[in-house]
Amino acid sequence: xxxxRDYPRVLTAMALATALIAPLPALxxxxxxRMQVLSEQANALMNEALVAQIxxxxxxxxxxxWDDRTRxxxxxxxxxxxxxxxxxxxxxxxxxxxAALDGATAESLxxxxxxxxxxxxxxxxxxxxxxxxxxCGVMEVMMARMxxxxxxxxxxxQQQ
Length: 160
What we know:
Blueprint: H1 7-20, H2 31-53, H3 68-85, H4 87-101, H5 106-110, H6 126-136, H7 138-149, H8 151-159
């Protein structure tokens, strides 16, 4: 199976989706804690979707749980969101993400169906969000974890 030509865009969308969707626990203590729960649950869903598309990835994907690097990158991201648009807008974004995942499946995530419920925080453009993701190293951490787990090697072999 070959990977789509727009795979970097898909990875960016997956990063946003991963960071932004999943049911929230009632006792989440902070926006960062909420984001971690969202991200970890969405990562598990994303792993399931990727294995469905590329079975050789089974056992070669990073675990859905955050490590210290991931938490640091997302702490920067959340601080940037709050600085740009305020806590209320970030809370609304997290609430939208929770609603977007309700009933989500790996298939709906990969088909782009989930993108409809995922919005940038009110007051931020896509370009601002992309710049913040880059400056905080979110994509860099995700790509490093994919490389360390062996997923990147598997995906590159699938393109040949």
